[in-house]
Amino acid sequence: MKPSTTPVTAALGRNNSTDNPDGGHRPPLQALSRREFIRVTTLTGGGFMLSLTLPGAAWGQVATALDDTTKAFTPGPFIKITPQNIITILAKNPETGQGVKTSLPMIVAEELDADFSTVVIEQATLRTDVGAQFAGGSRSTPDNYLPLRRAGATARAMLIEAAAQTWSVRTDELTTDKGRVIHAATGRSLTYGELATKAATLPIPDEKNIRLKSEDEFKVLGSRVGGVDNPAIVTGQALFGMDQRLPGMVYAAYEKCPVYGGKVISANLDRIKRLPGVRDAFIIEGTDNINGLKPGVAIIADSTWAAFSAKRQLQIVWDESAGAGHSSADYDARAAEAAKAGGKTVRSDGDVAAAFATGKVVEGAYFYPFLNHATLEPQGCTAWARDGGMEFWTTSQTPGSGQQLIADTLKLPKENLKLNLVRGGGFGRRLANDYMVEVAAIALRTGGAPVKLTWTREDDMRHDCYHRPAGYHYLKGAVDAAGKISAWHNHFVTFGYKNTERTASGAGLSPDELPARFIPNYRLDQTIMSTMVPTGPLRAPGSNGLAFVMQSFIDELAHAAGRDPVEFRLELLGEDRVVPPTQGQRGTPYDTGRMKGVVRLAAEKSGWGGKLPKGEGRGIAFHFSHSGYVAMVAEVAVTRDGTLKVRRVTSAADVGPIINLSGAENQVQGSIIDGLGMAWLQEMTFDRGRAVQSNFHDYPLLRSTETPAMSVHFIQSKNPPTGLGEPPYPVVPPAVCNAIFAATGKRIRHLPFNKTDLSWT
Amino acid sequence: MPSYTLKVNGQSRRVNVAADTPLLWVLRDNLELVGTKYGCGQGHCGSCTVHVNGVPVRSCQMPVSTVGGVEITTIEGLSPDGQHPLQQAWCEHDVPQCGYCQTGQIMTAAAFLKNNPSPTEEEIDGAMAGNLCRCGTYLRIRNAVKDAAVAIQKGGSK
Ligand code: FES
Ligand code: FES
User: Fold this and answer.
1) CB within 8 A of A84, min separation 6: which ones?
2) What are the pLDDT digits (tens) for A178-192?
3) Can you list the domains of chain B with their CATH numbers?
4) Angle separating helix axes A543-560 and A565-573, nearest 10 degrees
5) How far apart (Å, rounded) are the C-alpha atoms in residues A423 and B139?
6) Bridge partners (DSSP) listed for residue A475
7) Which of B:43-82 have CB within 8 Å of A?
8) pTM of the shown model
9) For residue range B15-32, what is the model confidence (pLDDT) as tens digits?
10) Which domains does chain A possess?
11) B65 contacts in A (CB within 8 Å)?
């Protein structure tokens, strides 16, 4: 029997009569909806504890526990309220700088009606009961919004019931505020703490008796709340992956082959082992999994510096044959050849050739490079092998997959791998768990001492596992006499990982990508070139390169048609409607009304249409990704000698209701800086299978002096809330490039544009 | 291993480390002051900024053997109670995203405001230009520094 089809009452009936194997009464697992189960128990020493079981690792166990009364399943705490009125809420997902350690507990606190400023937030370890614990795809908010609200509301309903029984009044005479139940008629009130122990003994109310707040009743949601870790961050407390410290800890460094897929033949281990502060050095054979345990040489030392110093003195003979023929220059040359030869048609609507024959034709070859995630904290992890298992302190965005990878690679029982989730900037880099399996392999060789693995910046730059893939787009478009796009033909030359059949991770282009479905004559051809560079998701994967190409070329066509770029785009989007994905495609329906709303808002707030002198310009772009609708207008000034100043970026986004306004604005502001840096400065290149760039001198981040003014706007539509860590990022490069065109007449088709001469006369 | 005596956050601390060990790693591994961060090890990012006699210095570029008897201040010693006006302003403006760069940012800003108590926005951006933030929090940093400058002027302390 599947939990989703279990008749709730029947299941509960059987569970209610079950005694806990550890002595006490085993309270029921109650199906709160078809997607989550709640259990309430008394905390040791009194108080209230609510457990929330969401679809995930333990789902099978839940089903069994409901179905078979001899099987116990004990979920962990999610909300705790002590008699001393300390309210603790679990932060279930990894915090990677996207703010979920603050925003997800805010959702619970809202419905609980607790005072968020006094709530204790506890970071979850990797558990089996609280559903998926990952940070990626801007999924944290949409996946958790309703279950977390229902959990908070359930607890609140039980506290109200406890008060009603205490005072012998009806529940509808009671209200709550800031963690108190209030009986206005008599002026009485009790804190949640005072009610907690009693509430814990009450039956869990049925889902239909739990009322969620309406949005106008929200007190915390939609307000500005500072990150819960801020006080610890600004005082330098040990919060990050690299800050972990354990008794008797040793320090490790790990040198991998600079060529992806390279193997170790031999190394000067004897000499390295004799260096001061070095305890051990050994070769790890590794596996072929490019996101897993790569071959290399490990050094265990008394300090990070001793490990780094010894690493520099390593002399390793590598088998580098895998890298032959893999250089950026090779890729460019192969793409140019492919452009001449033509690709395989992936989609063909109408007749592009006929439309080209009668329309005004524009052609452009676009390119965006490989990128690095370059989290400011290089990769690393701390692990401790003991008692037949291993404990980790990890910044992983996908801790569950990391656990599985370690179990599979090192043949360790998964249930003996305990993961503590530690703060660390992600951007998609920590979706891979290579550093975690590396430290696990090293921890088996420390004689039981805990070990911290730290990558150097150079390791991190060269072994970005994985890079945002580069892409080449050979475009031809036409506008008709009415000034509309009549045809669009793209030959997309992309990469496959060691093959030419399937696109590599992050290297695909949906046949539904705009302007497909929005114009009558559309054709997409594709060529896949083989690469051995590991590629994968980086903030708004796919979109982060595609938006630049599509929104720049749409701009070219608007100018070719002599049309206003905003009007042209609104017309392309057409009537307000929801455009479904083409049959057989997996995409999300596209709501043109929501997109037009943000395009108009960005234009309006930016002063679009006002005249600017030559050398100054505004550019607009929009993009839909991760269920978010975003438009931006950039305003730039370019001096005659080509010095660029991005003056202002105006952003409008519709991701439904905003959870934390401060956090949301921070994500947009950060995306603007990130997107500017990407478009302006950043490029990874490869030579004979190895990364050329090694540190921030040749892979720069944008600096404070280039910070534009920013104005950030939201349309808080009634749609379900969706994530904001990713959708704004892809929109920045085309907005800026279109502004540069408006200012100078120079069309940027090649990123980064620091190589383009922007001077004008 | 040679032995060095360092003056860190007003205390005398003795360490036995290799002479070429950067101050950064002495602080982090030996003295357990992990608020000073490693970002690049090459002087590019500013995550490792500490004060040496009040002057902002990249501790990754300073071998312990060259430190001598100077006064070193790390983020842990910036204020006795974590309530330096910059630390307060950072919380009020909700500056951090991942947070990794922020201690270095605050140390740079603290030294800067001592020399320039009422800076313009351009001066703030210029002073902070050596501190990278991967998450792109520069706008909030600028505003927080501006507010802290006013608070310091008013309060007179720190
Ligand atoms: S770690 Fe010292 S400047 Fe980057
Ligand atoms: S807050 Fe993440 S690097 Fe600055």
Assistant:
1) A193
2) 999 999 999 999 999
3) 3-77 (3.10.20.30), 85-156 (1.10.150.120)
4) 110
5) 23
6) A364, A490
7) 44-45, 47, 74-76, 82
8) 0.93
9) 999 999 999 999 999 999
10) 18-234 (3.30.365.10), 241-322+379-454 (3.30.365.10), 328-371+467-578+588-755 (3.30.365.10)
11) none
